[in-house]
Amino acid sequence: MLVYPSGIDVSSSALRLLTQLLRRRRREIGSRWRRLSVGRQALLTLAHLRMGHTYAQLAAGFGVGTTTAYRYVTEAVELLAALAPSLADAVRTASAKAFVILDGTLLPIDRIAADRPFYSGKHKKHGMNVQVVADPFGRLLWASPALPGAVHDVRAAREHGIIDALAEVGIKCWADKGYRGAGGTVRVPCWGRWETLSTGQKAVNRSHATIRALVEQAIATLKAWRLLRKLRCSTTRITKLVQAVLTLHLTSSE
């Protein structure tokens, strides 16, 4: 395998955070020597999350074994995921906003046709459903744990407690028709065929669509970490990966 120098468009604050976490971790477990320094391990992890490089590619580039690359990434992801904000944290942040925007996104996975729980009829592919909460400017506030792709958005929002959490503090929430019947403070477009809606209802839907479209920026922010564009790992690890990415994003945007 050929090796070449490359760059990663990640802020230095993210690298510093992960380096500090790994240094503290090594002290706690009394790790005396490793093939890579904490800084190199942090860089390896960021390359995996941001660029989506496989363990074999990382191993070749950093001069370690494939198994070692896997262990290094797994350790770092666990540390980052532990710092991810909870829904309660996100709601406290959102309470200072005029409203929030809620939407679901599908993270594609390499499942086979037999894995029906992971197949999204909406997207016509296998994946994991992640709920995204954004502020009025489309900035990512929170991303939920991952559920199988067959789970509908409104069901996922209820299972995560998003609707109840927002209603409890009275935060208005804009969402698409996939959340019809959610209740609480969730606002969805007027239901019906376009030709059967009144002029007023059409105007409301246009205004609603303009506001709700901003959530696409938050989803794009999440998927800027290329690993999440095509996941080839166990579905049980995806939540940790999403939480790790959320931690890194929030650290970089501070």
TrEMBL record:
The DDE Tnp4 domain is annotated at 102-249
Q: Which GO terms describe its biological process?
A: DNA recombination; transposition
Identify this protein by name: IS5 family transposase
**Domain of life assignment:** Bacteria
Q: Lineage of the source organism?
A: Bacteria, Bacillati, Actinomycetota, Actinomycetes, Kitasatosporales
State the organism named in the record.
Answer: Streptomyces sp. R11
Listed Pfam families: DDE_Tnp_4, HTH_Tnp_4
Transposase Helix-turn-helix domain span: 34-85
Its cofactor is:
a divalent metal cation
Q: Keyword Transmembrane: yes or no?
A: no
- Of which family is this protein a member? Belongs to the transposase 11 family.
> What's in the keyword line of the UniProt record?
DNA recombination, DNA-binding, Metal-binding, Transposition
Q: Which InterPro entries match?
A: HARBI1_dom, Transpos_IS5, Transposase_HTH_dom
GO molecular function, one example?
DNA binding
